Each structure stands twice: as structure tokens, then as C-alpha cells.
Amino acid sequence: MQRTSNREFIRPIPLFPVLMVMKFNAHSFEKPILVLIIACFFLPLVLAGFLQLFETPLPHTQWLRNATLQRTILQPERLSGRTLWSGACQKNVADRFNTGFAGREVLIRLTCEMWYRLFDKTPLNTPIVLGKDDTIFNENYLIDYCLTRTTSSQLEPLLRDLRQLQEKCTTFGIGFVFVMTPGKASIMSEYLPQAWLARIDPRPRTYDLMVPLIEQYGLYFVNGHHLTQLARAQPANATPVV
Amino acid sequence: MLNKIKPDSSDLNYIFLFPKLLAGPIVKYHDIELQLSHPTHCYEDIREGLIRFLTGLGKKVLLADLMSPTADKVFSLPASALDPASAWLGLACFSLQIYFDFSGYSDMAIGMGRILGFRLLENFRTPYLATSFTDFWKRWHISLSSWIREYLYIPLGGNRVSPARVYLNLCICFLLSGLWHGASWNFVIWGCFHGLILVADRAFWLQWQQRLPLLANIGITFFLVAISWVFFRCDTFSHALHFVAALFGAPASTANAVFLQRDTLVALVAGSTVVLLPLIQEKIHNPRVRIPKVAVLASLLVLLVLCSGRLTVSSFAPFLYFRF
């Protein structure tokens, strides 16, 4: 049934029975797919609501909980005029749905798996990047190790401040040690993904510039990077090669 | 116009019509007056509405949101770290991001309206295939440009005044269109830029461009539109100037951490294909070949699962136009 013009309208009819009852020129598979799409929108909501009705899972609903991998359940906010007015109740309902809707964990697993296979990283805001032999790296550490470069002149103000801090601490009788800890990318650089290895900036890294400056400014210093490399050189601590 | 309308219950329906409540498309009362007083549902409305809604969701979640991290990274780089390659990459990403973000929102609003039985006006018609700026504004945010034409350009005299006055009216309209987006000099300059190019269109370019091939006209228009997005996206005017300088070769003095990653590349290729699709379809159009609706719906079911997965793992990413 088509509108012939903007001025001719069909009689209003209920929304959902329309899908199954009315006979139009649609293909016979069209309506089941349309119902599936609508079910994809509403089924998680209905299932999550059904499962959250019972604080102690009933035996006959456990299979559903397992099938949808629904594990995260937030405590409900007490319904009162105050919580409604402040919006806490509405926010709690939204949070409970966001973190506990049926099928959430299945969706997360599917999406992360697909993203890993396609792009070697997660679809999260701070992506986890897949390196060689399935080693994982936080992208921020890769950026620091491969791309971020600085100059001695940019580092010197920081070292001057550290020197002053060390002197103040010494004056007050407080011990001061500057500990430099290594990032995962610098310790396990042989496992870096090829895409990042190809882009390593050849200029000296911040670490390479920092060590001589620390010595120049006379800071008490623990070189975590050096210690880790020494430890890794011993056979007992070496990273196993798969 | 206003004195012809008698207040009734459909006024409230119009005010609270939620598909258009927060952002565009701008729906004028007289455009849907009849639909408000005679609401209707039919199977085709639900089917077409769902198709439209899911298309918009896909544009937003799978295209715009994939491009936004690269665009955000490039536009947050300090001037000293901005090199031409990064600047062009960021601009390409932002140009596609803003289109898919806003047209995705409009598609979702139109689709939702259609499911409820309302036929809202189109807001985008392949704007990046425009052959001139005049053509661009007939295709981009159509509801805003028609609102400005109806309530500002025509009351100022429209085309029935001297050429100089027409040019002035165009500049005024686009200056105010810029201010509509935000009270910042960037938006003023963005509006002036568009106004001046439209004046050039009227003065000589529309005649000159007829000698050029279609693709060259599309390319020139897209290039200028993309340059104008720099002023739209940058936070300050000086940042925008540095960005434009970097686009045209000002080298970076310090390194930056931006490069084209595989997910962004896939999004850029997919986005460009979607943008160019109408042009490709026009070239290979065969009226006997029609994609069955059942295939469209089946692919949209897959799209819905992909979008739901992506939405589940990512954090809140609001629509760009919610700021305006």
C-alpha cells in the first residue's frame, strides 16, 4: 500500500501486528529478517530485565545466564523521589543495562577478536596492539618507544627541577632517588609488531638523552632499564621464545 | 506564514517530535503539519525507516568513529610537530568524519521519523560530489540552507536586487550561518570563506567551470570545502593558520606520533567508496539490476551486530553536531 500523495493517508493501524499480518508485495523472507533486526534491538533489553529480576539466579534461568555470558550485575538504586529528582535512579538503570545486558560479553569477545584479526589491535580508546608471538603492547608505550622524540634542551628544565627537589629533600633529611622504570616496548623490543618496527624514529630516545644528563646534574638515580636488561641477559630470566 | 496556522494539539507533537529534537534536520512546522494532524503507519514505513536508521548507525559507528582518533590526534598536535603528510591525513579524516557523523545522525533521525510514520526532509544529498560551492550548499545540511534562504536571504531581497546587493546578502547569510555553529572567530571565518566563494561562483566561476571536466569540478570543490574545515575544526585562528601552512609545506621542527594505521586506512577507503558510490552507480547504471530488499535487510542485520559490538567496547562518542 503506497501513499498516493501527501494528502491521502491510510487509517492508523497498530505498529507490530502489521509486520506479521498485513499482506503486501514483500518477499516472504523480508519479514523474518525484519523481525530479527527488531529482536536484535530489543531482545538484550528483555533478557537482561528478565535475568535481573532474580537476585539469586533460579536454576532454570542459569542456562540463559551462561548462554549470554551475563556476569556483571550492578546493585539497583533505591527508587525514591530524591533519587528520581537527582537522576541517580535513571543513571543506575542506564548503567545496569550498559554493563549487564544479555549478550554483552559475547559481543565484546566477537568484536575484539575481529579487530585483532583485521587490525592487530583492540577497538578500545587506548588500543592494545598485538606484537610478534601474540605479545600484547599498550599503544601508548609503542608511541613513546617508536615515535616520540625530544631534545636535551627540552629535558634540561625537568632535570633542573629534579636537582632542586633533591637538594630540598637533602636539606630536610629526606632521601631522594630518581627511579627510571622501563616500558614494555623497550624491554621486549624484539616482539614489536612489524608495522611499528618499520616506523622507529632513528633519533636518540628520551632514555638515551636522559641518562647522561642525570649524571651531569648529579641526581641519585636507579636505572631500571639497565637493570632489567642485565636481568634478562641471564638465561633464567630470558623471555621464552615460542 | 505564521498567521495562517491555528494552534492545536499537533503543536506539542511538533515541539516534542524526538527524531528532530536535539539536532538537525531542521524541520519546519509547515513541512509536516499535515503529517502531524494525520499520523499514519504502514509496513513500508517501518522497513524503510529501519533501513535508513541502520545505515545512519553504520555511518556513525563504523566510519566516523574510526576516523575520529586520527583526526583528533592531528588537530591536537602543536604547530611545531605538524608536517604536511600528517596535516593532509588529519584533514582527510576530519572531512569524512564530519560528513559521516552528521549525515549518519540525519539518516537515523529520518529513519526514526519514518518508523513513526513521519517523512522528514532530506538533509544530505552526496555533498562531496558537488561541482561548485553553490551546488555544495544544495546538498549539505539542506534543512539549514533552506531555512537560511527562506528566513534570511529572501527577506534581505534574494536575487531581485542589484548584483552587488546579492553578493552582500550572500556574505551576510553565510557569516550568520558560521555564527549559528558557535560564537568563535573560527566559525566567522569559516562562514566568510563560504560566502566569498559563493560570491566568486556567482561572479565568474559558474561560467568558467563549464569548460572543465566533471571530475575536475568535483575535485576543486572538495578541495576548497576541505580547506574550510580547517577553520571549522581548529580551536583558535592562529592554530588554523599554522595548520593551513603545514598543509602547503611548512615542515615540522619536532617529530609527531601520527601515522596512517590499518584501521584508519580501511575506514578512509570504505568512506571514500561510500562517498563516490553514487558517481560509480551513475556510470554503470543498469535498470534491470535491482538489489532485492531482502539482501539489503540481511546485510543490515550484520551491520547492526557489528555496530552493537563496536558500541559495546568503545566509550561515549557524541555526535559532532550536538555542540552546535
Number of domains of chain B: 2
Number of helical elements of chain A: 12
Helix and strand content put the structural class of chain A at mainly alpha
- Overall morphology of chain A: elongated
Oligomer: heterodimer
- Count of helical regions of chain B: 12
Strand content of chain A: under 5%
Given as residue ranges, the uncertain stretches of chain A (5+ residues, pLDDT < 50) are: 1-10, 18-23
What's the number of domains of chain A? 2
Order of helices and strands of chain B: HHHHHHHHHHHH
Residues in helices of chain A, as a percent range: 40-55%
Q: What profile does the largest beta sheet of chain A have?
A: 2 strands, antiparallel
Report the major sheet of chain B. none
- Calculate the terminal CA-CA distance of chain A, rounded to whole Å: 65 Å
Order of SSEs of chain A? HHHHHHEEHHEHHHEH
Protein architecture, described:
The complex is a heterodimer of chains A (242) and B (324). Chain A has 12 helices and 4 strands. Chain A is mainly alpha-helical. Chain A folds into 2 domains: 17-119, no CATH class; 128-237, no CATH class. In chain A, a hairpin with a 5-residue loop joins strand 1 and strand 2. The model of chain A is unreliable at 1-10 and 18-23 (pLDDT under 50). Chain B has 324 residues and is mostly helical. Chain B is 67% helix and 0% strand. Chains A and B meet through helix 2 and helix 6 of A and helix 3, helix 11 and helix 12 of B.
Describe, in short, the structure shown.
The complex is a heterodimer of chains A (242) and B (324). By secondary structure, chain A is mainly α.
Layout of SSEs?
The complex is a heterodimer of chains A (242) and B (324).
Chain A: H1 17-21, H2 30-52, H3 59-67, H4 81-86, H5 88-100, H6 104-119, E1 128-130, E2 136-138, H7 139-147, H8 152-171, E3 178-180, H9 184-187, H10 194-197, H11 206-217, E4 221-223, H12 224-233
Parallel strand pairs in A: 3-4
Antiparallel strand pairs in A: 1-2
Helix pairs in contact in A: 8-11
Chain B: H1 10-15, H2 29-37, H3 43-75, H4 84-115, H5 133-139, H6 142-153, H7 163-181, H8 185-208, H9 214-233, H10 237-247, H11 262-283, H12 293-313
Helix pairs in contact in B: 3-4, 3-11, 3-12, 4-9, 4-10, 4-11, 6-7, 7-8, 8-9, 9-10
